[in-house]
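Researcher: Good morning. I'm working through a list of sequences from a screen, and I'd like to move beyond sequence-only analysis. For each chain I'm collecting a predicted structure so we can compare shapes side by side. This is the next one on the list. No need for commentary yet; just the structure.
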Amino acid sequence: MEHAEFNKDLLKFLNASPTPWHAVATMKARLDAAGFEELDEKEDWSLGQNRGYYVIRNGSSIVAFRTGTEDTALSGIRMVGAHTDSPCLKVKPNPELRRKGYFQLGVEVYGGVLMNPWFDRDLALAGRVTFVDGRDTVRDVLVDFSKPVAFIPSLAIHLDREANSNRTVNPQTDLPPVLMQVPEDDTTSFDSLLSQQIASETGGKVRKILGYELGFYDAQEAGYVGLRNEFIASARLDNLLSCYIGLRALLDTSGDEAALLVCNDHEEVGSVSSEGAQGPFLNAVLDRWCGAGKAKAVARSMMISADNAHGVHPNYMDKHDENHGPVLNQGPVIKVNHNQRYATNSRSAAVYRHISDELGLPHQTFVVRSDMACGSTIGPLTAASLGVTTLDIGVPQFGMHSIRELIGAEDGHTLFRVLREFMQRKQIF
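Model: Good morning. Structure tokens for this chain:
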């Protein structure tokens, strides 16, 4: 089946992308293989018609686009947005902790981490390191230890009798992972361990570590779950799933219509950065692509912000509005919030529903309970920045922001089929 091949490639993408930098590197490799040309923001651009291009900022955000066969001022642009980052535990700048012969690292909580599931998991470590090489040149390199190197052991219930009824997690004192045992006089530095890893991965010499952005991640690979393989379990489904879906949709379009994918970093911490959705990255790309016709192009464009949705949990059904409880494997979820936590309006929702109905594919709708706060996405930020008609949608999932999340095995492919059609549709409205 087509969706089986889609999911097989999805698992490969997830396993290759433990950090935003690795996710962008994975997308870059696929774009290169498809004939897309990389653009440098420091240089002049000369864009041709019916061509594919991409721009990377900070190594962790990417904008990829097809120019189409017409002037964007007349055709508009079919945009899809997602984000590359996920909640995790990031290593502090001076992280070494030595206690009773155990070597640990201090960590900072990145984003809205669901902390309890991080205990008693096999943890790997990956990210970006900046260093001085053997030629006294400052370089960036991606590292991935690619195996379990750390563990955050729970305190035994015998020492915490209220663990099952009243457990709280102090991120400063409870979360430093254990990496190894060392003698009392050990002076091993984390920088030296990083230097060894870089040398192992690249074969190059490291004179000095200058900085790093590293995060722990679940070493268990993505895979199927369920007696009938109805589900997919993985780390970082929020929101690498949408990055993958958007990338596949862009690569599989006809190329006749102007289409764009933006995958921003830092969504989980508010998107306020040079490469985040509240930063200037997308606007800068559109300025250089569309030129004086940008305002007209945007007026004819639409953005679909793809970010996962909360599926109704069978053990906690009262956490959803009784008429808006999305079920896994019953279609992507149109997300509505009239207080503008989601950017969906009746017009943008109608575009998606119409395409989905034409393809004979299911879709659902989510509205948060009226007595609960609503999360948000890059959708409202992009809509406000560009003034573009925007839809918020996502695949329903369980365990959002946990170290391991769960989706239905059919929903990703369903969203892909609709986004592919959206990206190559001549008339949006």
